[in-house]
Amino acid sequence: MKQRLFRLLVVTGAMVLTSGCASLFPTTRSTTESRWTNYAQVQVAFDLIQTNQTTVSDLKKMGFDPAASPNIKILTYVDLIQRFMPNPGIRLEDLHPAVRACIDSKERSRAFEIILKNDNKKRHGNLFFDILGFKRQTHETGWEFDGLVLMDDGTVVYKLSSGQPLISKEDKEIRPLGPLQELEGSFASVFKIR
To answer: Domain span at residue 114?
Structure first.
């Protein structure tokens, strides 16, 4: 009786593993908390910022307030130097006049960096091969936004944004030896000729 039950469990387990049930695959979701749910929303809000017009209080009303909105980083003029002049080949004279003014005004200047990301990773394919490590396929989707706002004396003097409105990436990892592939490095280190 116990043997029959064991065989039934093994056959059922094998069927589940080889059927490729999508719900059994691991998924990963990494979302930066913010008031905006997609790239277009944050870009529209960022585009409303006007240089030489928008003030710090205006930024707060627009949702770009590091004290109230998560994932907005406050930068100092030292951070700006590191950001805009990462090597000695870039001189202060090479920078945009507004960036130079912020660096020159030191403590009177402030900068906000908005880094937002929504990343979803879902594995798919053959569950049996995935679990044993022979073949893993992962599809990544999402978006990413990075904005920089420089303020001098409480008014925005420079802004810059970059990002990726649509991420769609397919990763495929094939390991012919499956779980034994991990042992490959261990055997090489054990039998290494000195």
So the answer is: 26-182
- The predicted pLDDT at position 15 comes to 58
Residue 10 lies in a domain: no
For residue 8, pLDDT beyond 70: no
Q: Supply 24's token pair.
A: 């059994």
The candidate with the shortest Cα–Cα distance to 32, out of 6, 70, 65, 1, is 70
Cβ contacts of residue 52 below 8 Å, gap of 6+?
Answer: 155, 156, 157
79-129 pLDDT tens trace: 999 999 988 889 888 899 999 999 998 888 899 999 988 888 888 777 767
Calpha distance 115→149 (Å, rounded): 12
> pTM for the whole thing?
0.69
SS3 (DSSP) at 109: strand
Is 81 within the bounds of a domain?
Answer: yes
**Count of domains observed in the chain:** 1
Angle between helix 97-105 and 77-84 (nearest 10) = 140
Does 92 map to a domain?
yes
Q: How far is 7 from 9, CA to CA, in rounded Å?
A: 5
Q: Per-residue pLDDT tens for 43-52?
A: 999 999 999 9
Whether residue 127 lies inside any domain: the answer is yes
Averaged pLDDT, 29-44: 80
